[in-house]
Structure formats: C-alpha cells, structure tokens
Amino acid sequence: MTMRTLAPRTVRVDLAGRGYDIAIGPGLIDRVGTLAAPLLAAPRVIVVSDETVEPLYGRRVAASFEKAGVKVGSVVVPAGESSKEFGAFGRLMNTLLDARPDRKTTLVALGGGVVGDLTGFAAAVLLRGVDFIQVPTTLLAQVDSSVGGKTGINTRHGKNLIGAFYQPRLVVADTDVLDTLPRRELLAGYAEVAKYGLIDDPAFWDWCEANGAAVLAGDAAKRSYAIEQSCRAKARIVAADERETTDLRALLNLGHTFGHALEAETGFGPDLLHGEAVGAGMTMAFDLSAKLGLCPAADARRVREHLGAVGLPVRLRSIGGSNRRNWDADKLIEHMRGDKKAEAGRLTFVLARGIGKTFVTRDIDEPAVRELLDAAIA
Ligand code: NAD
Ligand code: MG
Predict the structure, then answer these.
(1) What is the Rg, in whole angstroms, of the alpha carbon atoms belonging to the chain?
(2) Known catalytic residues?
(3) Residue 114 beta carbon below 6 angstroms from any ligand 1 atom
(4) Running DSSP on this structure, what letter comes out for residue 78?
(5) Considering only 175-189, 243-257, 316-330, which range has the smallest mean pLDDT?
(6) Residue pair 24/33 in contact by the 8 Å Cβ criterion
(7) Which helix (H) or strand (E) holds 164?
(8) Which residues bind Zn(2+) (predicted)?
(9) Is 192 known to sit in a ligand binding site?
C-alpha cells in the first residue's frame, strides 16, 4: 500500500445538523470525487476555480469526479481579490445559471480564499441555496477561510460586507498542492497557523517554534499536522460560537486590528498580504500587551523572533515594498476605528497575558496604542 491510498486525517466540524468533515493529507486532489460522491444530492457538480489554479489542478479534480460517476461542469474566474467584486459576482451567477443547475447540483470551490468565499456565497444564494464543497489550495484557505462557514464578497464600502454564514458539506485539503504556491503566500498562511498557538494553545506554539521552518520547507507529515491542529482549533471555536455572537470567535482576530490598519494603509494591495499583516499585527498585539504590563516581555520577544525567523515581515520598516513607507500613527488609528470589529468607535483588541492566553478587550487607552505605534514607526 502506498501513502496515497492511506485514509486522510479527518477533522470533524460539529454543528447541529450541518456538521462536516475536513479531510487532510497528501494526494487528495485525485480523490475529491470519491470522497465527495456519497454526499452529493445528485451526481452533478460545477467546479469554480481561478485562472491560476484551474490549469494546475482542474483536470485532476474533474477526472476524480468522472471516475466516481459524477457529471462535471467548470467555471473559471480571474485570479485575485477582484473576483470578489459585486460585478464579478453577478457575472459568475449568470455563468452558473447558463449551465442550468438544479437544486441538487453541488458547487465545488477549487482555489484559495477568494474562490472559497465567492463560491460559498454563490452556493448560498444560487436557486436559494445549493450544496457546496471546499477544495482549498492555499495554506491560508486550508487553515482558515475554508473552515467556519463565512462566505462573502466585497463592495466599495469594504471587504466581506455582503455574505452569509453557509457551511460546506465537505472540505478536502491536499497538502501536496501547496508545493506550487508562491513562498510569500505560503508564509502568509503560516501566520494564521501560528495564530492558533498564540490564541490558546501554548504547546502548539512551542511545536511551531520547533517545526515551522520544516512546515514551510515542505515536510509533508508536519504540514498535515499543522493543518490538522489549525482546523481543530478553528472548528472548536466555530462550533462554540458559529455566528460570532460572543467574544470567543473574536479571539480568531488576534493581530487583525493592527493588521487591518496596515492593510488599509497599504491599500489592501500586493505590498502587504493579509497573512503578512496578521503576522505583524500579532507581534504588535503582544508588544502592546507587554507594554501594558499584561504579558511577560519574554513572550512578546518569542513571538517577534519566531515570526521574523521564518521570514514574515514583523517590522514596519520592512513593509511596503522597496519604497519605505512613511507610516503615520494617526492614520493607522483612524483605520482601526473604521474596522468592522470596532464597536461604537471603541477600538477592539485581542491582547495576551502570555503565549496561549489571549482575551478580547475594548478598554485600551488610545495613548498607549499611539505610543506603541510611534515606537514601531521610529
Ligand atoms: P487567493 O485566493 O487570492 O490565493 C492567492 C493566490 O494564490 C492567487 O493568485 C491564487 O490563484 C494562487 N493560488 C492558489 N492556490 C494555488 C496553488 N496551489 N498553487 C499556485 N498558486 C495558487 O488568496 P488567499 O490568501 O487564499 O485568500 C484570501 C481571501 O480569503 C480574501 O478574500 C479573504 O477575505 C478571504 N478570507 C476569508 C475567510 C473566511 O473565514 N471566509 C478567512 C480568511 C480570509
Ligand atoms: Mg485572517
């Protein structure tokens, strides 16, 4: 028996009546059809992918469905965030309807978080709701966006402001497809992996410090472990707070208030990927926690050192492309206020009492934040 035929690792997401499995492991891209077939309402799927991912993996996914006796259609959208725009979404819906789906047709999202968010939302509203399956192909999508049921698109008012909580029937995460992912995208996803350790799992953080470099270098077993632990962490939090009604799910936003400000200031563009912003943001959240005397300075140092050592940009100076940006604390604070996590203008932060000991707070004095930013900019 070869590795390829071993049962994948499985993480169950427990949601009353809508629970589903996440299958994780090498070689799964060729087994999507077999894994999905028993769950389909009818033997018909439409695979949605992007112009980068489709040529790499589209044929193999389609073949796996055909082998399982499932009829396959395909829609390809441009790669990148622009496919989550309102207009692009409208075009996708019409293209899907051109294929004459019925309520038993299942959509398959083959790609990163963009394709997953877009296809999930399309599934939520196509014919008032059809099933969908996630085949995430970026590390970020495998450990974050494909788990938890948040789907959505962007408008000129901001990202993900139109969407639905809509759970997939199955998630299939093939660790091999990460081999073709650009290094920067891989690192950006790794920031979200390490985040789960920092939130509430110090043992997993220790593991990341020891094994992060191997995960990034392509060690298959360690990749599977990192993805499995991440999915377990997110699944546990989502099962307890599916619709973000308590502060529990908000812990997943560790690093995201600072990160959002950095992303807003760099125009949500290629200068700073979301995961890179989260990496820098987590470093700042731990620095702020240490500055406020909440968290040992040594813990904040560990966060900065590990994320920096794997290659994430943890210093503001290193962010913003070759032109060193003139960061402005006032502007960054303004962006934090505009963040959808801010309630009634009060800044919301996830801070820490140590590694693996985070909490949500809305009681942080702005001068402390400003001082921290001024020091980081200097
Ligand atoms: P992405 O989907 O844009 O993928 C990044 C790039 O990598 C794209 O150019 C893509 O074509 C390419 N790519 C994907 N897989 C590849 C592979 N295996 N080999 C080579 N190239 C590959 O970006 P992302 O980082 O995966 O996702 C970002 C999106 O996810 C954002 O829109 C964000 O809002 C969303 N998101 C959603 C949630 C959620 O809970 N729903 C959580 C986090 C992020
Ligand atoms: Mg994130």
Answers:
(1) 20
(2) 128, 150, 192, 234, 244, 249, 253, 256, 260, 274
(3) yes
(4) -
(5) 316-330
(6) no
(7) strand 158-165
(8) 192, 256, 274
(9) yes
Q: Confirm whether residue 117 is marked as ligand binding.
A: yes
3-state secondary structure of 223: helix
pTM value is 0.95
* Residue carrying the six token digits 């760099």: 266
Ligand 1 atom at minimum distance from 57 CA: 18
Tell me the two tokens of residue 351.
Answer: 């801070």
CA torsion angle 192 198 201 204 (round to 10): 60
Ligand 1 atom 35: the closest Cα is on which residue?
A: 113
16-48: pLDDT as tens digits: 888 999 999 999 999 999 999 999 999 999 999
Q: Is 137 flagged in the annotation as binding?
A: yes
Q: Measured from the CB, is residue 53 less than 6 Å from ligand 1? A: yes
Compute φ and ψ for 21, nearest 5 degrees: -100, 150
- SS (HEC) of 123-156: HHHHHHCCCEEEEECCHHHHHHHCCCCEEEEEEC
Taking 60 as the threshold, does the pLDDT of residue 323 lie above it?
Answer: no
The ligand that comes nearest to the alpha carbon of residue 260 is 2
Residue with tokens 């796996």: 64
Residue 291 marked ligand-binding: no
pLDDT of residue 296: 98
Residue 270 has pLDDT above 70, yes or no: yes
Q: Please report, for residues 36, 45, 67, 132, 319, the alpha-carbon distance to residue 41 in angstroms, rounded to integers and kept in the order given.
A: 10, 10, 17, 11, 47
Q: Is the pLDDT of residue 6 over 60?
A: no
DSSP 3-state of 173: strand
The residue contributing the CA closest to ligand 1 atom 40 is: 145
Q: Is the CB of 117 under 6 A from ligand 1?
A: yes
Ligand 1 centroid – CA 80 distance (Å): 8
Q: Which two tokens stand for residue 270?
A: 């290629």
ipTM over 0.90: yes
How many angstroms separate the CA atoms of 296 and 287, rounded? 10
Distance 268 CA to ligand 2 centre (A): 13
| Nearest ligand 1 atom to alpha carbon 148 | 40
pLDDT given at position 256: 95
CB 277 within 8 A of CB 260: yes
Cα of 275 vs centre of ligand 2, distance in Å, is 6
Q: What's the farthest any 2 CA atoms get from each other in the chain?
A: 63
